Amino acid sequence: MTKRMILPLLFGLIGCAILVSLGTWQVKRLAWKEATLSEIDARIAADPVALPDELSQPDDLYLPVQATGTFGAARLRILVSQKKVGAGYRIISPFQTGERMIMVDRGVIPIAEDLPNGPLGEVTVTGNIHWPNEVDSYTPEPDTKRDIWFARDVERMAATLGTEPVLLVLRTATPATPEIIPLPVSRAGIPNDHLSYAITWFSLALIWFVMTGFLLWRIRQRTV
Predict the structure, then answer these.
(1) Cα four-point dihedral sign 56, 191, 36, 23
(2) Against a cut of 0.90, is the pTM above it?
(3) Which range marks the domain in which residue 211 is found?
(4) What are the boundaries of the signal sequence (predicted)?
(5) Which of 41, 121, 124, 180 is the most exposed place for a label (fewest CB within 10 A)?
(6) 88 and 170 inside one domain
């Protein structure tokens, strides 16, 4: 090995080591994320409990709850888009259960349909407590003239409907409102890209290794 090859060799080995370590870290993150998603699935599907007196994030995120009460006449429409379905409105309604008034995300109706009349009398609802993270600096303000919201903002929706800042995302209701299709809480919106990141880092490490070998070969050829 000539002196001219030492620096490229060190540079190549250090670069490969860094890229392999990044890929290994992503593999560890993948295992952690899969364990976290499994815990979320188990929590979502657990047996429902009565509505607690106090709720807090993140301790009660996805908490399964069952409650009996009546829907109020008011409601909010949240514009949503579903793959292979198209545009629709999430329907958020106030729900009186005992002495408490909370919000229920009842599900979605097609954008061209009018909101059906709610069930009269008591309804038993089962769902999961949620604090959706949908509002950012690009979210438009609610269009009050057309009665359209563009994201679920628990605090703001509660202030508008006059309820507690508690949102129950419906899984089932008895009796049901067939025209409104529930959109239960799921882990579908939680990203898990660690496998693709790991493959990318390991691929870059392989390319770096091959290019280092090619460079060393070129240097060797010039010194022969």
Answers:
(1) negative
(2) no
(3) 3-40+192-223
(4) none
(5) 121
(6) yes
Report the candidate in 65, 116, 74 with the shortest Cα–Cα distance to residue 92: 74
The dihedral over CA atoms of 211, 214, 215, 216, expressed in degrees to the nearest 10, equals 120
pLDDT in tens, 70-80: 999 899 999 99
Are 35 and 67 in a shared domain? no
Mark whether 165 and 204 lie in a shared domain: no
Counting every residue written for the chain, the total comes to 224
**Helices within the chain (DSSP H only):** 3-44, 154-161, 194-223
Half-sphere exposure of 72 (CA within 13 A, CB side): 18
Q: How many domains is the chain partitioned into structurally?
A: 2
Please tell me whether residues 103 and 74 are part of one structural domain. Answer: yes
Contacts of 158 (CB under 8 A, 6+ apart): 103, 164, 165, 166
